Amino acid sequence: MIASTQKDITRRTIGENVWLNKETPEIQNIFARQDIPPYKYEVLETEAAVGRAMLDELQTVARNKKGDVVMLLLGGRGAQAMYHIINQKIPTGELDDLLSRLHVFTQDALAPMRMNNGFSFVRDFERLLGDDFFSHVKSFTPMQTDTEDLEGELIKYLEKLESLGGIDIFFLGLGPEAEAASHLAYIKPDSGVVFSDLAGIIPISETILEHHISKFKAGGSNVTETDEAECRAATHILTLAPAAILGARKIVQSIVDASTAPNKKPSFRRVVETEISNDLTERARQMDENPGLWLRLHPNVRSLILPDLLEK
Predict the structure, then answer these.
(1) Dihedral of alpha carbons 55, 56, 61, 65, sign
(2) Per-domain residue ranges for the chain?
(3) Mean pLDDT for each consecutive 10-residue tract of the chain (312 residues)?
(4) In this structure, are strands 69-72 and 102-105 parallel, antiparallel, or unpaired?
(5) Which residues of 34-61 are buried (b: 16+ CB within 10 A; e: fewer)?
(6) Edge-to-edge strands of the sheet including 197-203?
(7) Is 275 helix (H, G, I), strand (E, B) or coil?
(8) Smaller CB count within 10 Å for the chain: N or C?
């Protein structure tokens, strides 16, 4: 990711969306690349196989880099198999070197919300990865959601990412939207996002809240009525944006839940089949209309899916 400090990040507002922006030649060049190749993906037979492949990518990044490794966690079903494998391996000690070098960050959050709310992504990651994981990693940095200064805290988060050398591996999924569009992290269609935006603070919809609450309940999260009331009062989503995604050295996408989220099938098909325009004005419109397309521009993506995603 490109270096950023509070004084050189600018604030853009598009409707009710707030984007933290910094233009850099490196990200502009990635956005403007010509002759975008067809989108490649790998079909694996089981969710466990996807989890093993994801962990393999993390270990490969660590082997090929001296010093610390910066990883962005993925929520939902997409990375749960990898987290399960990590939990199994921690007692053996075989991951000790990797974990001791690992700086772990979250990529999105609901706000305002207490950090210990059972509906927060932080609590869910603690449930999925366990105390042993977080006691072994070098650092864990979530987006702060219990502050009156969300923008200021989000800038501090971006500054910490930059101070550690940027993102080495970014685990991403794909979220379905209306008309077979899609979202990455929580970059929503028609939000006015541009290639140079690092992060955003966007309004939350009642539909997203209901989906989030039902997903956490179904997943077995330990929640209370007070937690749910606070979650329903959340007004915004914090999310990383295109400049952070395009600036990551490695992207690993996993989509394993098409059987329970069938709208991902047409959304993924549209990402794969869309012809990216070489006219940059039109390209910007395409990306804003369908944010899942941002991965088509990244030069180092591995996309892992299950066979059911390709069913019509």
Answers:
(1) positive
(2) 6-310
(3) 57 96 96 94 98 98 97 93 96 97 96 92 90 96 94 96 97 95 95 97 87 79 90 95 98 95 96 97 98 97 98 88
(4) parallel
(5) eeeeebebeebeebebbbbbbbebbeeb
(6) 10-14, 17-21, 197-203, 236-240, 108-111
(7) coil
(8) C
**What pLDDT is recorded for position 272?**
97
Q: What's the pLDDT at 221?
A: 78
How many Å apart are CA 61 and CA 69, to the nearest integer?
Answer: 8
Q: Write out the two tokens for 2.
A: 């490109």
Please give the helix or strand (H or E) that residue 304 lies within, else none.
strand 301-305
Sorted by sequence, the CB contacts under 8 Å of residue 165 that are 6+ apart come out as 68, 70
- Which amino acid is located at 247 in the chain? G
Report cis status (omega within 30 of 0) of the bond before 266.
Answer: no
For the chain, the first-to-last Cα distance in angstroms comes to: 37
**d(C-alpha 133, C-alpha 87), whole Å:** 7
